[in-house]
Amino acid sequence: MKKLLLLVVLVFTTMIFAQKLKVVSGNFDFLKDQTEVNVELTFDSLLLMKENTTEAEYLNKRKNDLLVNPKRGVKAWEKWNSEWEYYKTSVYPEKVLNALNNSRKIIFGRNVKTKYTLIVDGRWVNPGWQAGVITQPAILNTYIKFVETDNPSNVLMTLSSIEIQGKSTSGSKDFIMEYERISSAYERTGRLLLRELNKGTK
Q: Which candidate among 56, 114, 152, 170 keeps its CA 20 to 30 Å from the CA of 130?
């Protein structure tokens, strides 16, 4: 059992440190004279699980699972659904912002009037799971682009992030629910983007 747990830890550690963003087009030159950037998160194209279900399909299945459980029911679904939306609109953006705002030169914010806007578009996520003391962290794919705020069709730079893995703190009460695990993957994405940003704006 100890050998199995050690193997799991080694695999997760290797996956985490191997993760990085890929520059698809452009570079960070346009940011070198900027002090503030607006940030948006979008989920319009989000798919979930290995089956690539839409968000609507995933939520409907989650709803049915809770409604048929005599110990959960309508109130449990309403609470879960409310938390899901709250994390999308508030927690995920804050996780990305908190990571990015360790930048040496640029302040990142939401709903601020700036020349450029950073859009983090969630494309695919595996929410992971928790069973006792074992946690399978969420894995997230995003498409990231910097656009001119007043002319969003003018894309200055694009990056892709594939299979960015959140934390895998075994047994942590902070990772029981799907949206909690997903928030960690968004934070990790923000940290990786910050690393690329710091390298590209030296």
A: 56
